[in-house]
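Lecture notes, unit on protein representations.

Consider one protein chain, 156 amino acids long.
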Amino acid sequence: IVEYFDYQCPYCRKVEPELRQVIFDDGKIRLVWKDWPILGPMSVTASRMALATRYQDKFIQAHDALIAINSKLTEAKIREALSAAHVDMDRLDRDLASQADAIDTTLKRNNEQAMAFDFRGTPSFIVGKFRVPGVLTMAQFGQAIADARKAAAAKK
């Protein structure tokens, strides 16, 4: 499952626990997050900071901390959440500067992919070979996964 998400998207926050539960329960699904900051400048700031944490192997912790913020993002809230997630903030600032081109390239590529898939907002998913825009329940995720597996098996 590939998820295109925005840290400021309330629907992304809402679907996160259910998506994680489906993946945990199944045990055979790989989740790939694609930062797609489309809800304003603070979304871009949050995504850039989260992507910069990859250089200290803290992306999952950063993602969890940022997706859990249940209010409008500010740089102060983002920094506070990342610091609480044990991100080295001095290293983060250095990596934001030194890796700016790589981070911006990732965000540009994610945006181009989302546009090519004709996604209109977050969250949007690719489940197997299927495009699945919008919020899904656990049952709907289960059905999308079953459909993707059936389609993959039919091609063999």
